[in-house]
Amino acid sequence: MNSSAGLAFSPHVITIGVGEDIVAKLLSLSQQRPRALCTMSGTGTVSLVTLRQPTSTNASVTFKGQFQILCLSASYLVAEDGGPLNRTGGISVLLSSPDGHVIGGGVVVLIAGSPVQVMLCNFDYCDSKTKSKQATTLKDESSEQPP
């Protein structure tokens, strides 16, 4: 695929301990290298979740109890101005309560209620601006005549 946005995929399986913040752990992992990160799946339970309200940028709602992870989705990309600490992206989750109610949305805080296993991958991310800049540089270099 010539239009691929990522190269050099590396899969990883991590276990997040009881009481740890899953959001903080994934963000910390994404900042260790200048590579993009995305989750493939997550299993386990959470004991506390704070979700962003979609209608307001600052409003959130917190739920306490045992919730089964149905779907965990996360992606962090290196921002255009670069640097391992400058990221775009976030985490969303779909959870089931013991009585079968389903809640979900964009995550602010997600505390593990049991060991949570997350399968993720990191990869070199190239956006279209980076690709066109690289192509222009390669074209310019190839048109130069050797001395």
UniProtKB/TrEMBL annotation:
<keyword id="KW-0539">Nucleus</keyword>
<dbReference type="GO" id="GO:0005634">
    <property type="term" value="C:nucleus"/>
</dbReference>
<keyword id="KW-0805">Transcription regulation</keyword>
<dbReference type="GO" id="GO:0003680">
    <property type="term" value="F:minor groove of adenine-thymine-rich DNA binding"/>
</dbReference>
<comment type="function">
    <text>Transcription factor that specifically binds AT-rich DNA sequences related to the nuclear matrix attachment regions (MARs).</text>
</comment>
<protein>
    <recommendedName>
        <fullName>AT-hook motif nuclear-localized protein</fullName>
    </recommendedName>
</protein>
<keyword id="KW-0804">Transcription</keyword>
<feature type="domain" description="PPC">
    <location>
        <begin position="3"/>
        <end position="144"/>
    </location>
</feature>
<dbReference type="InterPro" id="IPR005175">
    <property type="entry name" value="PPC_dom"/>
</dbReference>
<dbReference type="Pfam" id="PF03479">
    <property type="entry name" value="PCC"/>
</dbReference>
<keyword id="KW-0238">DNA-binding</keyword>
<dbReference type="InterPro" id="IPR039605">
    <property type="entry name" value="AHL"/>
</dbReference>
